[in-house]
Amino acid sequence: MAKVGSSDAGYIRKVIVMQRVLEWSGRILLVLGFISPWLWGIGVLALAAAKILDNMEIGHNVMHGQYDWMNDKHINSKSYEWDIACDGKSWNRVHNYEHHTFTNIIGKDRDFGYGLLRLSNDFKWRIKNLWQFITYINLSVLFEWGIAYHELAAERVFFGKKKENRDYKVSHQELKKRFFSKGTRQIVKDYLIFPILAGPFFLWVFFGNLLANVLRNLWTSTIIFCGHFTGDVQTFTEQECENESKGQWYYRQALGSSNIKGGNWFHLMTGHLSFQIEHHLFPSMPAKRYREIAPKVQAIFNQHGIHYNTGSFISQYSSVLKRIVRYSFP
User: Fold this and answer.
1) How far apart (Å, rounded) are the C-alpha atoms in residues 249 and 281?
2) Could you say which DSSP state residue 28 is in?
3) What does the alpha-carbon distance between residue 62 and residue 60 come to, in Å, rounded to a whole number?
4) CA dist., res. 3 & res. 8, Å (int)
5) Interval 246-304: pLDDT, tens
6) DSSP H helical ranges for 157-275
7) DSSP letter, residue 161
8) % the chain with pLDDT above 90
9) Residues 238, 239, 242, 246: is their CA dihedral positive or negative?
């Protein structure tokens, strides 16, 4: 962290410029789709890439406070709001605090399976698990909405029996208000305002935005599943983690996450969550630094006989799919 400084500030500002260029190029090309479908197709890809950068390399990392030291109100965890249906404050509560503090502790980390998928023997098998692969596909296609609804579902705001004596950090009324206001804003922006601005090319823009959002959802879901649910990822009980020391916390993070090998562009488009192990060990470190520290982290793992869970995209994703299918059955 002693090295963090101007080069990191320059990097994130360059990524933000790149994201803005991709977004507006994409939106213009969607309108020009009437000239050639190729322009529309390139526009969809450019807009999807912009949304991926916004969510992964910029939004996720800025909201972790990785750039708060810059004292730039536009790149600060307290004020940043990303281009996704999930309200930023909900993300901070459920992901940044709960998931990163209680990583893979069954009963305390509600990210493990998102309450939809049975991914270990820690959970009792139910009939609905038989078709959980289809549930996974639907969750991936609608991933931004799944993440947006995650906290409400966990708190049983609309359906299900509410847990007694739960320490609610936010009232149900506030959760519903934030969910509907952020979700409505996203729908109006992508499926009403921009298509209307395109005039007679309304449908070109409408369906372009829809496809870009789906591509972003599929990519982010896949990368996040590869970082958390590969076959070697381990779970923990609350009893195992009682009176946990700082060193044991690091050990749990090491066993509860997994990396993906790839080139520089691949790492950029994953928001450097291809270094999920390093991210869990040092969540407030500027993500680009994970490439630099990964060899040192791996050497320490080797020194202490800890499995460093990494592999190619194909091998890690295959492992995820096998896990989903395996725990579909008793």
Assistant:
1) 9
2) H
3) 6
4) 9
5) 999 999 999 999 999 999 999 999 999 999 999 999 999 999 999 999 999 999 999 99
6) 172-188, 194-197, 202-228, 246-255, 264-269
7) P
8) 78
9) negative
